[in-house]
Amino acid sequence: MCRKQLELTVRKSSGDWAYKDLIGINAAHRFEAHRGDIYRITSNGRSKRVIVRGNDEHDATCMDLVLREFFFDNVEMVGKKQEFTMTRSWQLWGMLCFAWNHSDPAYKLSARLGVISLLLGLISSIPSLV
């Protein structure tokens, strides 16, 4: 499991990132994280899985309003430095947790329906084994 401490300035992201749980971090701060990887970001005692994207600003991170509201009590953190911990977890589990707790209801619904379908499939296979 890879972990990295970051201190970055918080910036607003573009409007098309709203409700997508995307965070923009410059390549110099992403260590081996590639664009599109899912990481757990922790700040102020709160953590959330997000998709890491690129960012042109060297010492800044871009977040939409939903992520800024989640991490900070004061949404006006734009332009201020903040500490973050970036942790890479097991990919399959991380993807499921990401979709299960996503801000966008479409991601949540599809993940939950997938788990329900898997469980029903397993339950329905029990009589054929007996």
What is the helix content? 25-40%
Number of strands: 6
Q: Structural class of the secondary elements?
A: alpha/beta
**What are the secondary-structure elements, in order, as H or E?**
EEEEEHEHH
Determine the number of helices (DSSP H or I, runs of at least 4 residues): 3
List the helices and strands and how they pair.
Elements: E1 2-12, E2 22-25, E3 38-43, E4 46-53, E5 60-63, H1 65-71, E6 81-88, H2 91-100, H3 105-129
Parallel strand pairs: 1-5, 2-4
Antiparallel strand pairs: 1-6, 2-5, 3-4, 3-6
Q: What would you say this structure looks like, in words?
A:
The protein is of the alpha/beta class. It contains three helices and six strands; from the N terminus they run βββββαβαα. The chain has helices at residues 65-71, 91-100, 105-129, and strands at residues 2-12, 22-25, 38-43, 46-53, 60-63, 81-88. A six-stranded mixed β-barrel has the order 1-5-2-4-3-6. β3 (38-43) and β4 form a beta hairpin. The protein is elongated.
Keyword list:
elongated; 130 residues; single chain; alpha/beta; six-stranded mixed barrel; 32% strand
Summary?
With 130 residues, the chain is an alpha/beta fold.
